[in-house]
Amino acid sequence: LVSRLPRVGTTIFTTMSALATEHGAINLGQGFPDFDCDPALIECVERAMRANLNQYPPMAGLPALREAVAGKIARMHGRRYDPAGEITITAGGTQAILTAILAVVHPGDEVVVIEPVYDSYLPNIALAGGVAVRVPLRRADVGGRPSAPEAGAAADDAPAIDAPAAPAGATGFAIDWDALAAAITPRTRLVLINSPHNPTGASLDDADLDRLAALVRGTDILLLGDEVYEHMVFDGREHQSLARHDELAARSFVVSSFGKTFHVTGWKVGYCAAPPALTAEFRKVHQFNVFTVNTPMQAGLADYLRDPAPWRDLAGFYQRKRDRFRAGLAGSGFRLLPCSGTYFQCAEYAGVTAAPSGLSELDFCRWLTTEVGVAAIPLSSFYDEPTENGIVRFCFAKRDDTLDEAIRRLAAL
Ligand code: GLN
What we know:
The protein is of the alpha/beta class and about 425 residues long.
């Protein structure tokens, strides 16, 4: 058997979650909340099941949910998508991304991705026969650094004699627009933009949308926006969706997910919004892949979305968790990178002197899981070729007591 994906093994998220379970470690690796969703959402789904909404829904998704998604995008971004021909309900963001890629990428087409890159994109492009063109994020002083670490350090006025000084924050990551421009060729079919960005927490601002528009103007390049962390943008920023910008929206698949927003990652329900011609191609693939997405979850979500903003203060909720985690690690050997979005905090570990020196990111994560009892994800798993930045990713979508126990274990390092 000749593998279609010879270099692909089990995902790092599955691997690290298994290691965490085996060693009873606190799992700050794979990104998922350890707290419950709103009970009202469960009741909505339960009502749908009891109302016998248990047979196939329409291929593109229940009209009520598509309508609710259209309303939500219109309220957030001022663009009204037509639920009938421009919105498709998917089995999570991951399926939407694969479907969009398979729908428009022909063998040999180039697809530009930003590296570090979420782990499903490159295999998705390979399955379509596309050629991935990787553009590295640049290390940059991205500003807007929250004050929590300094505050945390100041609270600890009289550190023990041998306690290391709190390291200052590390520089963050930002899109390198010159490198992105240089990566565009006549063969470029699609550019994937993930904002807020997993794993770095970087997010686009409105000037970035204009830069992107200038880059693709006059070409037939399509865009795919992975915006599953759209409601987790911090420090007063606004999420800059591709849907906000006329020129970009006209050539974009915009993907999001209810799993992240409503703390139900296991439900696997998301959506793709795109202009009619793109949606038509998207649905050709969708109907012969999953065909459609389970009915009661869709009905329950539609019901729940009658509340105009059921995510309420999700950004504030996660910002407080981010700040709690950052403050807790302020005096440790970790150097925290800025985090303007997502529920991930990246940290440099060179200053963690308790660890054997010279560990790769993967080995550091293994050591941290087995010896310290906290699982994390190596940044290297978001690169196509071996790349070591000395950075690991922690997920802070956890109960405060979980975070506090993780902090207790990590702060001493
Ligand atoms: N998106 C999640 C993360 O980055 C993981 C999803 C998965 O395990 N496939 O941690």
